User: Which sequence fits this backbone?
């Protein structure tokens, strides 16, 4: 599986100011069917670890603070 | 045994987070609580969270309490309907609307007597699907409420109850309520009443002259739903409505009633500029099954819209029996 480490942009972005992973929240990680999100323990925020998105949207929809944004490619909209 | 001990440990850890000074932590604890299966432990904890000092925690608890039907929890949610934070009140209303057991209806009806505004509308909304006979009288009384949303919710309750005694009051609202949305819902609620068609028809005919097209649309749909042959002349007239949406529902109703008188107007609608209406007219002509429609349907086989062509073909085979 390709790692997203070298990529400049990934489809799922997390607003670090809104993310409350530091308070024990793992909603986006739990709902992702592909398990491509993870919590960055050093920063205390969620991030996209693997760039394999299906654009299914529960992470954005279920995020309790609205911190997750899924950027759907133009041709899939 | 080990597994049970682990689970208890896990729940204790969540319960500890539920009294954390940080509201963000408490809110996440509410979410985690739901993932555990021990409802005996979870319910009181959620109820406690519903009384939290932070609105975001209360809202999360109100959402989480969906599906719990014990009296304490219903009382808690009813209280939350008057919460100062709108998101808490809305979440409580949503959870109450998901109640399934008719036994809970007694509590809701009791709460109705002192409720008003949003609270009252939400309780009526919750009562709707429970169909408890005790909700008839308060719902009828709520038809005179000054709040539009309360009247609309009360109509929902009456529509689900299908009580013959409600036909008269619903018909009054259908024809003379000041809010178009309420009139529309009232007209739709008349579609559930199969008791006394003679009281319903005049109200529906008046609603056909309503200045708001959504009310007219609902009225023609209800005429078809009730299968009232006396409605045919009015439905044919509605095929001349300035809104194609009204004509579309009228065509559907005429098809349902298998009205031969409607063949000329339906054939004409087969060439309207809106393809949705053309499709509906083709389907209706097929249902009516009158051979006079064949030339028009054959012409519709050349329609620019493939769906219309397909449905015209289907209608033709329905009529000719081939």
Assistant:
């Amino acid at each position: 599986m390709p790692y997203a480490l070298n990529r400049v942009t990934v489809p799922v972005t997390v607003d670090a100011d809104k993310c409350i992973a530091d308070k024990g929240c793992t909603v986006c990680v739990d709902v992702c069917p592909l398990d491509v999100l993870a919590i960055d323990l050093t920063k205390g925020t969620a991030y996209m670890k693997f760039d394999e998105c299906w654009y299914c949207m529960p992470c954005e929809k279920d995020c309790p603070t609205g911190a997750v944004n899924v950027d759907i490619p133009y041709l899939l909209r | 045994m080990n597994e049970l001990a682990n689970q208890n440990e896990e729940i204790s850890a969540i319960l500890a987070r539920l009294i954390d000074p940080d509201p963000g932590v408490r809110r996440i604890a509410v979410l985690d609580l739901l993932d555990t299966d021990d409802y005996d432990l979870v319910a009181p904890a959620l109820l406690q969270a519903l009384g939290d000092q932070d609105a975001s925690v209360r809202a999360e608890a109100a959402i989480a309490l969906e599906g719990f039907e014990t009296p304490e929890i219903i009382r808690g949610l009813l209280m939350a309907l008057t919460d100062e934070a709108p998101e808490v009140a809305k979440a409580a209303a949503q959870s109450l609307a998901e109640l399934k057991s008719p036994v809970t209806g007694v509590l809701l009806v009791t709460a109705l007597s002192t409720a008003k505004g949003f609270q009252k509308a939400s309780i009526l909304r919750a009562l709707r699907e429970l169909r408890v006979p005790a909700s008839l009288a308060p719902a009828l009384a709520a038809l005179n409420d000054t709040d539009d949303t309360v009247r609309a919710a009360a109509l929902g309750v009456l529509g689900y109850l299908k009580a013959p005694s409600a036909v008269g009051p619903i018909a009054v609202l259908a024809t003379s309520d000041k809010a178009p949305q309420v009139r529309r819902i009232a007209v739709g609620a008349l579609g559930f009443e199969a008791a006394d068609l003679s009281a319903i028809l005049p109200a529906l005919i008046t609603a056909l002259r309503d200045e708001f097209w959504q009310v007219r649309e609902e009225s023609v749909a209800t005429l078809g739903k009730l299968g009232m042959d006396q409605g045919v002349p009015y439905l044919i007239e509605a095929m001349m409505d300035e809104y194609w949406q009204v004509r579309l529902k009228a065509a559907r109703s005429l098809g349902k009633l298998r009205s031969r008188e409607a063949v000329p107007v339906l054939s004409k609608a087969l060439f309207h500029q809106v393809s949705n209406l053309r499709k509906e007219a083709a389907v209706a002509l097929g249902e009516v099954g009158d051979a006079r429609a064949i030339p028009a349907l054959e012409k519709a086989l050349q329609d620019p819209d493939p769906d219309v062509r397909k449905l015209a073909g289907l209608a033709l085979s329905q009529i000719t029996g081939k």
Summary: Chain B touches chain A through ten residues (CB under 8 Å). The first helix of chain B runs from residue 2 to 17. Chain B has a mean pLDDT of 88.
